[in-house]
Amino acid sequence: MVISTDEQTVLKANKPALAILGNGKASNITGKPLQSSYRGSSLQKDDMPVPLPASFLLPVYPEGRRQLIDFRVSKIKIHRKAYWLAIGRTVEKQQTLKLQLQHLEKEKMLHEMKVSFMSMASHEFRTPLTAIASSIDLLETRLQLDNQFSEFYRHNIHKISDEIFSLNTMLDEILTLSKIVSNNFSPRQTAVDVHKVISSLECQYFSNRKDGRSLVIKVAGKPRNVFVDKDHLAKIFNNLIGNAFKYSEKKNPAILLSYHKHKLVVKVRDHGIGIPQKDLPHLFTSFYRGSNVDSIEGTGLGLAIVKTFVESNNGTISVESEERKGTTFTLAFRYTEED
Amino acid sequence: MNRKILLIEDKPGLSETLKSLLELHRYDVITAVNGDEGARLARSHRPDLIISDIYMPVLNGYDMLELFKKDEQLKHIPVIMLSAKTEIDEINLAMKKGAAGYVTKPFLFKNLHAVIRKALKSVPSH
């Protein structure tokens, strides 16, 4: 509503204001002094303070029910003349607000329950998986000691073992994704030594491999910390390094850390099967997998998770690849917050 | 003389298999089902190495590690933690509390064995 500053009469009102204050008719309010309540109240016009306060509540009685309108007032100038501009919003009944709040809390609780259920379930799944993996190891050892470890046993035992670990990776990915979709993954950023994180991943997951390969780690420049979530960073590199081993055979994958002036650039490189050009644009989409992966197992979730985590930590990621030559992922992260 | 390993694990399915695996690799193995029993067996049997789960009833792996590090007789026995938790902070916490190694579940015995051998290097044989 536009209100004159002297008499405080309503000069102009938009449709919702006309509907609620003037019963839909402009003549009911325009040109008349702003009242301290509309329809159903006997209060006088001089109940409205002069000048208008910065905000006020106006009671209205449409259909006999009391409702409050919250007005915010500001001074405007039209053709160098000053007016009040009052913008009103109906105040939700406290009861309605309470109900909405309850709904929100319930929704939040359901989300949290879902995540904790997923977390509990994936943790519990690991118990039988670990027991199965150990039984397989035991079978293999027994057969070896008894000189009965034929090619047939070797092939099938390794197949079971590989499947157990890919099932385990899937569990990890599903758990991570369930956290992402319920928005429960806000990064807890601290100063992180990326080299240290990669070394501990290498030691934990990529050493003593069955095929005898190892990860090559190279560092250039003066090491500095980056400001990221440590667990996200570990998931990012665990996935990229895991892929580098998974989609290549003979040569060792390499990771290069280059500490530039303003950012850390990390390259994860393999000499594997590569990614066909036509797949590159869709690479970071959930459930999308390269057309040349054939029988190599995967959920198609890994790189989608990687990209989400890189971006939520203010980093960038890109990929270059050539079929049958290899793939290089390039990531960049800024240094600590103060930079 | 075989090295003696105390295996602390509350899941019987895994404990039994892992015990057999270690025995096939010529270790003597005693087992416990929680940190409390583990601490008692460690005092009476003086193992060369302890392999322990972290999340177990009664006394968990972290509390047990703390208990060991305060005990003159037990603080030199290397403890390898075995856990399904993969978070880096979890691993760092275990190492900070004095663990000799951390292996995530599920594991390949080959990897666990490499960690065992490394940890035993610091222990003089009897």
Automatic annotation (TrEMBL), chain A:
It catalyses: ATP + protein L-histidine = ADP + protein N-phospho-L-histidine. Pfam families: HATPase_c, HisKA. Its EC number is 2.7.13.3. Signal peptide: none annotated. It comes from the Bacteria. GO terms for molecular function: phosphorelay sensor kinase activity. SUPFAM superfamilies: ATPase domain of HSP90 chaperone/DNA topoisomerase II/histidine kinase (SSF55874), Homodimeric domain of signal transducing histidine kinase (SSF47384). Keywords: Kinase, Phosphoprotein, Transferase, Two-component regulatory system. Gene3D superfamilies: 1.10.287.130, Histidine kinase-like ATPase, C-terminal domain. Residues 120-337 form the Histidine kinase domain. This is histidine kinase. It comes from Chitinophaga cymbidii.
From TrEMBL, chain B:
It holds the Pfam family Response_reg. Gene3D superfamilies: 3.40.50.2300. It comes from the Bacteria. GO terms for biological process: phosphorelay signal transduction system. InterPro entries: Bact_response_regulator (IPR050595), CheY-like_superfamily (IPR011006), Sig_transdc_resp-reg_receiver (IPR001789). Transmembrane segments: none annotated. Residues 4-120 form the Response regulatory domain. SUPFAM superfamilies: CheY-like. Keywords: Phosphoprotein. The keyword Phosphoprotein applies. The modification 4-aspartylphosphate is found at residue 53. This is Response regulatory domain-containing protein. It comes from Chitinophaga cymbidii.
